[in-house]
Amino acid sequence: MEQRGIKVTLIKMDPYLNVDPGTMSPFQHGEVFVLNDGAETDLDLGHYSRFVQSAHFTRKNSFTTGRIYDAVIRRERAGGYLGKTVQVIPHITDEIKRHIQDGSSDADLAIVEVGGTVGDIESLPFLEAIRQMKAEEGPANVLFVHLTLVPYIAAAGELKTKPTQHSVKELREIGIQPDILLCRSDRKLPKDVKDKIGLFCNVPGDQVFSAVDVETIYQVPLYFNDEGLDEKIAEKLGIWTGRPDLSRWHNMVEKIRNPKGEITIGVVGKYTDWRDSYKSLSESLIHGGVANDVRVKVAYIDSEELEQGNNKALLESVDGVLVPGGFGERGVEGKILAIEHARTRNVPYFGICLGMQLAVIEFARHVAQMKDASSAEFKPEGKENVIDIMESQKSVTDLGGTMRLGAYSCDVLPKHKGEATRAFTAYGREHISERHRHRFEVSNRFRSRLEEMGLVVSGKHAVASPQTDLVEMIELPNHSWFLGCQFHPEFLSKPLQPHPLFAAFIKAAKNHRK
User: Fold this and answer.
1) What is the per-residue pLDDT across 169-189, written as a single tens digit (0 to 9) for each?
2) Active-site residues: which are they?
3) Where are the alpha helices (DSSP H) in 353-439?
4) Half-sphere exposure of residue 452, counting CA atoms within 13 Å on the CB side?
């Protein structure tokens, strides 16, 4: 990003052995966040993207222990170490430093996060690498900011500083002296507590900052600004900058905290007990609420429960229905029931990736009278698979990083039968680019039959050919708002730049509530 002439980038290092998070279960790791270049990262890079308005992250901005070890082993197999014994130090740590330098090569300032907890075996190579970097780059060019916990013990009525002291002690034992401490707590730390922490951690008291639990995550930058954290970091690194203009951010946070109205969106999925699986999605709904000055309450509806006849009352109480992306057959019929409910009851519907594919299946079954309509993902030998595996995926054997990933262009249909399409009304332009993560697509074999029955294809892949004539968006014209997209718009939504489809969906739900 560009801030007053200084180009800043962010890098996330994760201490696990997966080469990327793409093959990890959402129950274990939360959502997979996809970048324009097709890199599969974790949800932290999604947070960075939402906070930095002009961020353009690539594969270089996120890497794991697995990717580091993979690079070192490949180099050793190719004879790159000339027969030397390959060790964690210096070879693994040198590779970590190489990745940091490569990811920040075109930036003036890099903010680098080391994942994990101090004391974990997994994160030791990362900590050793950044210790070496401070020695190599000079103390004026590297600043260590350590996030710690200061719990409040209600029974004793006091803040406990021991966890912070022990965490810093562990860091100092491996040669890292924190320059700034961010102390996570449910309340602001008084000056005497900050001074005590500073005394025992060898950090000046004015470099110990509160990191207080707030109503919304978007208040965090405002709170740190009030605490003077940004000013202290600039001072320690010798950076001159004027005071930041946070007025737009203040206005956005005010709309989140004190909106004029409220709506409820039902998110129908199978990961409803693990909300981080839908992190970008839930944040994008908040952004859509900001655009329409309403608070968006999310009702997570377990699709498997719907299959068993439960949660129907909850489904009937929502102002809009959203079916997100996912994989596998489990819970699919419950999602189709929710889609049928939205279509037949004129409730605004938004389907993303699998949510779009299931909307096509529901339409084929109940409108086009294709009773056996399904997907090749669930019925590989099905006779009426309106959703089929992409040609480019038929020869794929490895699962990691092999889907249709990253940004692809899309042509938006401006009008259908003289009326502007929902897609064009939302975007306001005919050519867009969106991020994808899927193996299956709407089958062109049945497309004309579905279109004859009223399904509108309002977005197609911009490079038209028999191999790439892919359906990107579908909608139903005679409906309050019914749209599905093959891509993941939640990956591009930001609080100051809500994604057009989320803004339009929330507007439709707001009107439906009225």
Assistant:
1) 999 999 999 999 999 999 999
2) 353, 488, 490
3) 354-366, 422-427
4) 6
